[in-house]
Design a protein that fits this description.
Structural class: alpha+beta
Mean pLDDT: 80
Radius of gyration: 18 Å
Distance between the termini: 41 Å
Shape: globular
Low-confidence stretches: 1-7
Strand content: 25-35%
Strand order of the largest sheet: 1-2-3-4-6-5
Number of helices: 3
Length: about 160
């Protein structure tokens, strides 16, 4: 089966692509992994080092992680890393999300995480791309949605 974007998806992905009606559990950090050299080079502050990197949450199209770093001045920061292994499709996904986040962040910085970088992993095969943003702890979800009627809306 294919999604709207004509990218083949599995039955499990089809189920997840439907709008959930139940609360979704907040993501949790799990197993450690190695951060690619090109991701490290893209950190916004030169000389930043990785303290720890953990898988974090789930993604239909790649892997997601929480990268804990130490800045040269000793401060600790957390970054969110998305890694996509879909070749040129992954490139368009990471670049598109980065550019979209950048525009949204300019007008509403509280609405999205600050985008930091996107790029390609150092290894050439397979083509692997990444998106790096400010980390936001998702935590508890918002309460139930209420219907909203704009002022002067005809009834």
């Amino acid at each position: 089966m294919e999604s709207i974007s004509n990218i083949g998806i599995s039955e499990a992905q089809q189920r997840v692509e439907q709008t959930p009606s139940d609360l979704i559990d907040p993501p949790i950090a799990t197993r450690a992994y190695q951060v690619d050299e090109n991701v490290i080079k893209s950190f916004p502050v030169e000389g930043t080092t990785v303290v720890h990197a953990l898988s974090y949450g789930e993604s239909l199209w790649g892997k997601t992680g929480k990268v804990i770093v130490q800045l040269p001045d000793g401060d600790i920061q957390n970054y969110f890393l998305k890694v996509v292994t879909l070749g040129s499709t992954g490139r368009f996904m990471c670049e598109g999300e980065y550019e979209s986040l950048k525009e949204i962040y300019q007008v509403s910085p509280d609405f999205v995480p600050r985008p930091l970088a996107w790029g390609r992993y150092r290894e050439l095969k397979p083509e692997i791309y990444f998106l790096l943003t400010q980390f936001r702890d998702v935590g508890d979800q918002v309460g139930p949605l209420r219907s909203y009627k704009p002022p002067n809306f005809p009834t």
